[in-house]
Amino acid sequence: MNSLRLDSLALEAVEQEGIEGARWLGSFPFSADRPGETVTDTTDYTVVYNELDPGTKIGTHRDSVDELVYVIAGTVEATVEGETTATATGELVVAPADVPHSVRNTGGETARLLGFFPSGDVESTFETEPAPYDEPD
Fold this sequence. Notes:
seven-stranded antiparallel sheet, mainly beta, 50% strand, Jelly Rolls, 137 residues
């Protein structure tokens, strides 16, 4: 059995150029699509871990499969197909396949999120493609 501590993950800093506040830290601790970059290579599911500073967001995008987002910590505003709802620690949001969705940290602390995807290749389409950036020291 494999286990991991989320606070020990190597997080990649990502941003979407041209979209104000669209920057976050992320990692794929479980994934078949990213061999060598994950804690566990699996073919059954994909898990993404994200951290958003206050006021930042993951910009609007669509995933090829359903996504279940669990808020580990913080308060976020989740928008799914144009409908926005406040979501906080311990709550879940479902984004159906091919439906535009985004998440914005509306709280005063770092928001921590886990995204769960079913088996198969997960393809995400963003308004502008996310790219790594160097986080200031």
